[in-house]
Structures are given as C-alpha cells and as structure tokens.
C-alpha cells in the first residue's frame, strides 16, 4: 500500500517526525529500573525509509486475555519512499506475532491503529514516571495530624521574613488644579 508521509505519521500519532526525523518514547520497570517499553519512529537514509518499532511488556491481565499469551507486544513497520515525493510504500509490517510482506490496506490500517494505541500508552507511562520520579527523589512524610512535614532541604530554601523598615501611612497633599 502507498501512503502519503503525513497520513502515515498522523495515523501513528506522530506527525512531528516529518520535521524532527525521529520521535521516541520509553518507560522503565519500577522494580528493576530496566526499560519496560519503548516506541520509536524515525526517517532513515535521508528520508528514503520510514521505520517504526515498538516493544512493551504486557501486564498479567493482558497476558491472560491475549490469544497468544505473549509476554510483550512487538511492532515493526518498514516503508520506502516511492518515485513520487512524500509517498511511501509499506513493504513490511509485523505485529501480534505475525509478519506481513506487501500487506493489504486493512492489515496496514490495523497495524497503524495498534501502534498508535500502544505508543500512546507508553508515552502516558513515560510522563507519569517523569512526574513521579521527582516524588521518589524527595519523599515527603505525613504526620498523624495529616499535616505535611517538610524535608530539611525545603526548610533551608525558605527565606525568613525581613523585619526592617516601617511603613507609615499618610494623607496625600491636596493639589489644586490651578497650580498645575
């Protein structure tokens, strides 16, 4: 199947690859710290090839409900530019343990939508981890009164109130318009 580059990238949820030439997301396993999922879309060979790869660990629930009971989701797409500028022919696509060479339009559409959904999940997990990483680096403890006890680092960062200088309010002078 032949697609316009913008159409392919939009269906994968990454139209900005056209300007950046590469876009990638990843998240790490909370226990081991190893990469548990990644998605990568890139233009190679000076924009002649489009490659999309995805690999993500499945949860226990996903393993049980999937027909292949695989431990991870894998996706791979290879498309090459045709003679027409910005048009690409999908040469190879693989997902759910199946590999398709010269795939039909319906297989490509299904693969692109699966990639988009899983890449979105990976990017959400990546953002969650980046926010939670700050919480992990600076743990905060709660007292029984449900008040926050600030860490010593935060106490030193706050400035004490300045005690010099006194402000005395006074009435402004009355100015007549004729003197201006």
Q: Helix count, per DSSP?
A: 5
Name the average pLDDT: 78
Provide the succession of SSEs: EHHEEEHEEEHEEH
Approximate strand percentage: 25-35%
Descriptive report:
With 180 residues, the protein is α+β, with helices and mostly antiparallel strands. It has one domain (2-141). It has helices spanning 5-11, 17-20, 60-65, 105-137, 152-157; strands at 2-4, 22-28, 35-44, 49-57, 72-81, 87-95, 98-101, 141-142, 148-149. Strands 1, 2, 3, 4, 5, 6 and 7 form a 7-stranded antiparallel β-sheet that branches. It has a two-stranded antiparallel sheet with strand order 8-9. The longest helix has 33 residues, at 105-137.
Index terms:
seven-stranded antiparallel β-sheet; single chain; alpha+beta; 180 residues; two-stranded antiparallel ribbon; elongated; 31% strand; 9 strands
In short:
The chain is α+β, with helices and mostly antiparallel strands and 180 residues long.
Give me the secondary-structure topology.
Blueprint: E1 2-4, H1 5-11, H2 17-20, E2 22-28, E3 35-44, E4 49-57, H3 60-65, E5 72-81, E6 87-95, E7 98-101, H4 105-137, E8 141-142, E9 148-149, H5 152-157
Antiparallel strand pairs: 1-6, 2-3, 3-4, 4-5, 5-6, 6-7, 8-9
């Amino acid at each position: 199947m032949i697609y316009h580059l913008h159409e392919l990238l939009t269906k994968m949820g990454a139209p900005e690859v056209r300007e950046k030439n590469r876009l990638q997301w990843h998240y790490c396993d909370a226990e081991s710290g190893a990469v548990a999922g990644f998605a990568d879309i890139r233009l190679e060979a000076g924009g002649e090839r489009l490659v999309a790869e995805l690999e993500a660990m499945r949860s226990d629930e996903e393993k049980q409900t999937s027909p292949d009971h695989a431990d991870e989701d894998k996706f791979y797409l290879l498309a090459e530019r045709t003679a027409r500028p910005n048009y690409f022919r999908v040469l190879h696509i693989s997902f759910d343990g199946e590999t398709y060479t010269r795939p039909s339009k319906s297989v490509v559409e299904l693969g692109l939508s699966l990639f988009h959904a899983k890449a979105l999940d990976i990017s959400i997990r990546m953002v969650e981890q980046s926010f939670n990483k700050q919480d992990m680096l600076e743990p905060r403890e709660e007292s029984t009164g449900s008040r926050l006890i600030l860490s010593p680092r935060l106490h030193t960062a706050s400035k004490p109130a300045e005690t010099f200088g006194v402000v005395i309010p006074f009435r402004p002078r009355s100015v007549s318009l004729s003197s201006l």
